[in-house]
Amino acid sequence: MERIPVWVLPVLLAFEQLMVWPGMPWLEQRPVSALHVATALAVTAVTTAALLWRRAAPLPVAGVVMVALTVGDLGLPEEALSGISAADVVALFGVAVLCRQRTALLTTLGMIVWQCGVMAVRGDLGSDYPAGAALVVAFYVIVLALGRARRRWHADRARAAAELAEAEDRRSRAADTERHRLARELHDVTAHHLTSIVVIASAAQRIGGSRPELVAEARDFAARTGRDTLAALHRLVALLQRPDDRPGAAGPRLEELAEGFRKLGQRVTVTGTAAPGPAVAEAAHGIVREALTNTLRYAAGAAVAVHLEELSGGAVQLTVSDDGAAAPEGTAAGRLGSGRGLTGMRERAEALGGTLEAGPRPGGGWQVTALLPAGPATVAVAGRRLTTDRLMDIAVLLLALAMPAIGVALLLDSEVAPGLVSLAALTLTAHAAPLLWRRDRPWTVLAVAVASTWVWPALVAAGILPITHGWLPITGLGVEALAVHAVARYGRRPALSWLAMVAVLVSTIPAITLMLVLDPPADAATDSYAGLLLVFAVIGGIPLALPVFGAWLTGFLVRRRRARARLRQHHAVAAATAWALAEAGAERARVAEGLRAAVLRDTARVAEAADRGDLDEVLDSARTALDGMRGLLNDLREAPAADADGAGRTPQPTLAALPDLADRWRANGRSVTLEVAGAGRALGPDVDLSAYRVVELLLAGDTGAVTVRVDLTGDPLRIRVIPMPADPGGEVAAGLRARLAAVGGSLDPAADGSPEVRLPATAAGGTARTGPAAAPGPQENGEVASSQPG
Length: 790
Prior knowledge:
- The protein is of the alpha+beta class.
- It has a domain at 655-787: Histidine kinase-like ATPase, C-terminal domain (Heat Shock Protein 90).
- Helices cover 61% and strands 9% of the residues.
- The chain has a 6-stranded mixed β-sheet with strand order 9-10-8-7-6-11. A 5-stranded mixed β-sheet has the order 1-2-3-5-4, covered by helices on one side.
- The protein is elongated and about 125 Å long.
- The two termini are 51 Å apart.
């Protein structure tokens, strides 16, 4: 909803002021001083002009309004500013919404002192001055609370918009992010396993003539490492299907990693007792693996020290340093790098919000230092801070005490004993005090309010409270209405909140009726009590029921509105997140297929050739596998990235892109048959996009042959994927639920019992086009466009 233009409210107040004064006196032909008219017009003009700037400069506007109204209050008749007098409320509301809490509190306090001072200067210092001052306090605190609540509403909407924008951004970057992560994983496998085979086998070939025993050792190493490489690649392929399956425990894994490099001739020591979380442990493991591999390439035989130290705040500092023993020049090691070593290590650190530095050591050698934070810092919130919720609760309590305060003031005027006044004030305050806990314990607050209603009949029956003051409890009936509102707004079981109305009416009406029984009319016959009570219950119950029902209805509607807003936000974020997972999953599936086709086969040949003793075949197969891995890395690195403003991103796909989607899967060797009935039908953007995403998600959930049937001829649209994909992890089901909930779709059984996705022809935010643009396409009217696998 758009904001109301800033000029509307000031203009309405100015118009009201001119109509009330001097307009009404002129219409009634009452004499009006020209000086008073000029003063009223000047105050109205200044106040109206100031309120036009209340959003840009709320605090100065409040000051100008207070000064202008003071001039009017002291220089004009009492009723002269009744039209523009609400300007201070508008100004205070603006301060509460736009300024910090401390500023808003001080401004409210200043306005209370100002208003009470104006009342005193005007001579309103009679016995009702305390009640008037109490009303001023309650009124301004309520305005402050409403303003702070509005500020929080704006903050919640801004936060929801930011979360949705972040989710959409994650979705738009999902494929790129997954490419970068996979590039690091692939590079680690390339560096650690395949490179070491080439290094050892090349060295054995060079000096095998003078040291034949190295050839046998190289063959054994190639056979053993080749099998380890194959197992690592198979684990990586499996990891592509379960991206969140990560090992933990950094210490033992680093020691195990170091032991593998010791077998290659490296002198590696691991020190430190830090025990970071899984994310930091995974990043540390990847950085150490890359650093040790670089040492193997460029400083073979060097002594390497790995140290993992926990810093204050849970951060971890990782240091990998070597003493600089260099590998002989001209070896194959220096030509095996893919150029991503330092970049990959730095990306791992920066992904956690950390930093990484690498460079020569002053005394010779090389050092890598990474600072890995434990996680986002948490900010402690002061326990005594006056929150918006607590401020609103105080305002509600003051509102509930406003009428009782007037009643107590009337008691003071009637020369009642001070003890009785104190008792009445304490009883009314105790009756309303539980409202401070209305958010946390609404049903308990209601029970206390209902039970305390019977205190007044008890006081009258005991002769403590004269029956002549039996009207006083009526001033506190607002507590019951506010308690009912709290139950409807915050109670745990909204469907049963209507019982709060019943409880209040069933308790309050008999309590007040009992007050009447205790002091019956003098001319009432004893046998007419029953009829009298019935008349009072009907006549008195109806006026009481109306505000109680209104309080329940407003609480229930506000609760439902906010729940729907949260649900819409949740569905939108869940949908964006689910599609990000689907797009990342499609990228993983593509890379997994590339690994199977280009790397696994040649890696398996490394171990087979080593078992046969063919060192030349070992080198050829290892280098071929490295070339295939580099090809995948280059493909991942060179994927087009989006511009900073998103201009480089591909537009959101629609049903018209289904043939391209099927072709992409077929290019990966999958059999996909696509059948579309009613192709070319014009649909709303949400439905068009959602239908495409449903098919995309279902195709990403399996790798077997499938038939996709899309029926666009009716309403709802029908989508079937036969057979439905296996979903052991539940990711497909989660994404499907999010997408269907976002557009009001459903998953129902078709005529043959198989699952069928149904989407409405129009959805929230998307309306089907009409007119010439919606004319049937050449394959509409029931024709089926069938695309068979090529």
